[in-house]
Design a protein that fits this description.
There is one protein chain. The protein has about 300 residues and is an all-alpha fold. It has one domain (about 5-225, about 235-300): Mitochondrial carrier fold (Alpha/alpha barrel), CATH 1.50.40. It has 11 helices and no strands. Helix 1 (about 5-35) runs antiparallel to helix 10 and helix 4 (about 65-85) packs antiparallel against helix 5. The longest helix is centred in the last third of the chain and has 34 residues, at about 260-295. It starts with a helix and ends with a helix. InterPro entries: MCP, MCP_dom_sf, MCP_transmembrane, Mito_Metabolite_Transporter. Keywords: Membrane, Mitochondrion, Mitochondrion inner membrane, Repeat, Transmembrane, Transmembrane helix, Transport. It is a multi-pass membrane protein. Its main location: mitochondrion.
Length: about 300
């Protein structure tokens, strides 16, 4: 019988973590698209920031972020947990490099499927003209109509690459750190252990993923000009991953690849803490319910 629980717990915990850290993620995205020599959205961003006098209304337009986690988080965590048990029966038999590969595969596959929701989230956070004043599904349909269905998968390659790196590092480092804390330092499998292990995983994920995250964000924020009659180089400044990487470092310096690092870390740190603690609590609750179901009814009385 198919076990759906890792998928459900992963999706719910991811959505809770996304909701808790969305303001930081919004800050990170806007930092990463600023300073581009070809950036033609700066004035629109400034206007948008002035337009929303109530910042809470602007920050918590999280429908796209939650939709993304409902798809990406569900698939990623479900597949990762399933694949772990294909190679090891329990946590003591797990190997770091196997978990890294499992995390890379599950993250890449999940993000390849969920890329349209990721694209929509970034454009909504950047207040891109293609999504201004539109609802969630109306905006997605507008992008598909104007840029083609392939436009929904703009930036899919750097997105998949980032997902592979982040998932491979975060999930494997968390499991490894948790195992070491429990086995080597005689820590208990408690919220404190989950907190420390997730903090380590968040820093490792932010450090390794920020450069490709900058490239991914800039590629996704540029509008596909293939559908425009009067397309110009300015409307499509980057031709691909390497072109964006070269132009960014040449025009803004190598440090530009770490734009938004601290917001990224401030997001990934709390995001991982919230996610793993909530995920572990779902697992604990499930184990408690399982044990209660295993006890005869008369022993509950």
């Amino acid at each position: 019988m198919f076990d759906w629980r890792p998928f459900l717990f992963g999706g719910l915990a991811s959505s809770v973590a996304e909701l808790a850290t969305f303001p930081i993620d919004l800050t990170k995205t806007r930092l990463q698209i600023q300073g581009q020599i070809f950036d033609n959205h700066t004035q629109q961003l400034q206007y948008a920031q002035k337009k929303y006098t109530n910042m809470f209304q602007a920050i918590y337009r999280v429908s796209a972020a939650l939709l993304r986690q409902a798809t990406y988080g569900t698939i990623k965590i479900g597949i990762y947990q399933k694949m772990k048990r294909l190679f090891a029966d329990d946590i003591r038999q797990e190997k770091l490099y196997i978990n890294v590969l499992n995390g890379m595969f599950s993250g890449a596959l999940a993000n390849a499927i969920a890329n349209p929701t990721d694209l929509l989230k970034i454009r909504m956070q950047a207040n891109h003209p293609s999504v201004q004043g539109k609802g969630l599904f109306t905006a997605m349909a507008s992008i598909a109509k104007k840029e083609g269905v392939r436009g929904l998968w703009s930036g899919v390659l750097p997105t998949v690459q980032r997902a592979a790196i982040v998932s491979g590092i975060e999930l494997a480092v968390y499991d490894c750190a948790k195992q070491q804390l429990i086995c080597q330092l005689n820590s208990s499998d408690t919220i404190g252990t989950h907190f420390l292990a997730s903090f380590i995983a968040g820093f490792a994920g932010a450090f390794t993923s920020t450069p490709i995250d900058v490239v991914r964000t800039r590629l996704m924020n540029q509008e596909n000009s293939s559908s425009r009659v009067n397309s110009t180089a300015a409307s499509m400044p980057y031709k691909g991953i390497m072109d964006c990487f070269v132009k960014t470092t040449r025009n803004e310096g190598f440090s530009a690849l770490y734009k938004g690092f601290f917001p990224s870390w401030l997001r990934l740190g709390p995001w991982n803490i919230v996610f793993f603690i909530v995920f572990e609590q779902f697992k604990n609750l499930d184990r408690t319910l399982e044990s209660r179901r295993a006890i005869p009814i008369d022993q509950h009385l």
